[in-house]
Amino acid sequence: MRKAGLALMAYFFFDFRDSRKRHRRGLLSSLLCQLSAKSNACSETLSDLYLDHDEGGQQPSEDALFDCLTKMLRVPGQPAVYLIVDALNECPNVSGIPTAREKVLQLLEDLVSLDLPNLHICVSSRPESDIRTSLDLVPAPFRVFLDDESGQKADISTFITSFVDSDRKIRKWPAEYKQLIIDTLEEKADGM
Q1: Is the peptide bond before 98 cis (omega within 30 degrees of 0)?
Q2: What is d(CA 32, CA 34) in angstroms, rounded to the nearest whole number?
Q3: Quick one: 43 and 65 in the same domain?
């Protein structure tokens, strides 16, 4: 659909190792850049933001970034827009009032509340209670929870067993030690 010009897609991966990929500002900036790179109308909207902020001489606020995103999503005749937010659980939830994660969850709620028929949002995350509680309040036509799925647990088990069997050092160990490694990693994997 994207290649045929029938959809726009923007993807963001939260990464605890990269300070630019842990907060709402990074998410918004990335989405704006990606959408503007694929749509002339979105590019013009981002250009307006640039001009409004002294041609890059001033940092726009997060509210200004959100307003810009909203304008992009509301462009008349805009094709379907897919926003993919991956690994939300890696957004910090430890300091600040509100925390970085609470700000992102609020952003997602605000996007959903726009009730735009062409907007589709996919969020992936480990099932942390604050994330699950917040997302449970957002109306969504589809929810998939993989943390309880036997297929996911089987995939993790297959991966661990394959690794233990193929590692040069470990495969020489006694069978009971290898099994202890497999059992411990499967038990502690927690979906990862």
Answers
A1: yes
A2: 6
A3: yes
Q: Do residues 88 and 44 share a domain? A: yes
Q: By C-alpha distance, which of 76, 83, 67, 70 is closest to 30?
A: 83
Residue span of the structural domain in which 157 resides: 150-188
Give the full edge-to-edge strand order of the sheet including 119-123. 7-13, 80-86, 119-123
User: Which pairing describes strands 119-123 and 80-86: parallel, antiparallel, or unpaired?
Assistant: parallel
Q: For residue 162, is pLDDT > 80?
A: yes
Please indicate, yes or no, whether residues 68 and 117 belong to a single structural domain of this protein: yes
pLDDT in tens, 43-74: 999 999 999 999 989 999 999 999 999 999 99
Instruction: Enter the tokens of residue 160.
Output: 């661990």
Structurally, how many domains does the chain consist of? Answer: 2
Task: With respect to residue 145, please indicate whether it lies within any of the assigned structural domains.
Answer: no
Boundary-marking domain end, from 111, 136, 161 = 136
pLDDT in tens, 96-113: 789 999 999 999 999 999
Longest dimension (CA), the chain: 68
Q: Please give the structure tokens belonging to residue 48.
A: 């307006």
The enclosing H or E element of 93 equals: none
Is 141 a domain residue? no
**Amino acid in the structure at residue 117:** P
CB neighbour list of residue 24: distance below 8 Å, 6 or more residues apart = 62, 100, 103, 104, 107
Task: Kindly report, residue by residue over 164-178, the tens digit of the pLDDT.
Answer: 989 889 888 999 999
